[in-house]
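Batch manifest, entry 17 of 40.
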Amino acid sequence: MSSVLIAKQPILTQTQSLYGYELLYRSKTTTEEWNGDLATIEVMINAFLNIGIDRLAGSSTVFINFTENLINQELATHFSPEDIVIELLEDTPLTETMKMKIQSLSDRGYRLALDDVTPLLFSKWQEADMIKYLTFIKIDFLGTPDNNHRRELARAIKLTDPNIILVAEKVETIDDYEEAKQLGCQLFQGYFFMKPKVMESREIPSYYLAYVKLIEQIDETEIDLSKISNTIKKDLSLSYKLLKLINSPAYRRMERIKSIDQAVVLLGQKEIKKWLYVLALRESLQHSQQPGIDSLVKSSYYRAKMCENLAKQLIPHLTQEAFLVGYFSQLPIILHQSLDQILGNLSLDGCIEATLKGEPSSLRDIFQLVMAYEWVNWEEVDQLTETLNLNKTMVFEAYQKANQWVNNVFQLADTDTVS
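Output type: structure tokens
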């Protein structure tokens, strides 16, 4: 499983209470070639899907850097204006196209911050008449080392637009902090308060073909949600991300999730399409796929389908719950997290949770039989087969069909990788 890193640096008010965080890309490899587009996309995927924005920032405002290319591609418009502050980099060129994009974002209610502002950069934006579209200007204390220049800059900003929120960034000493307050800065960020805190999680590899299929399906005039959910079921990574997303504060609902079908309906076409676009964009920028098929992920697919096959014969009204029991049973090992922590990130039905915890449930014996078959524990297989009033042929057929389904899923993934 790949490791997921992201850093957050707090942005504080004058009373040093938390206002928000700037989210920053981090990588374990120091030799990695910098790609600003991919860095922003990784930050968004890791923040909202892998780690969870509620765990990362709670209800606080998040600032995320956007490159010229991602502004032109209108990536930010896939999120609501309340989700993020769009931080425009200092090297953003003020072409006519870019100026129109920035104006459009502002008109649609997005909050824009200009990063690393020096007197020269401010003059450039002022001459282009673009200051009026900004909500925040971040004064770069390291980039403007002369305090007289910083004072003139702050005064010029306020004369141009008194509603601009001044953010003092790269504040490294108590003197910087005191000066920033005197300049009229309302928000503060820098090593004086806290260095960026790196958070780490794990990501399940996705099996490639699902993105292409789903984007095709979701763009059809007549949306078939059952087709969409069937495609998602063939990708453990997407399934987990979907259920984790629906359990975040922005989407959380009272009912517990019993199936991928239910989650697809509750989340809705627009939200699914947004994240498919972001995930597919990352794939196109990476130009590489994770080699091989992890045995734990493959085991999850097998368990899911065999649980479903057995449930069809014994308790057909619980087939979708049975699928999710098997599907998510390997997540503690895959993600290096406790089962309780994982279940806390998902809003699963009580029967699914009880089965995964090994507690009494309608699905416990079915799940135990599936695992006994996987572990080649024939004594337990015979015992559970008898307990469930099945025969060996029925169990073998359920196993055989599960294996055929798994092989088909991964053959398609391998074919897509080769092509």
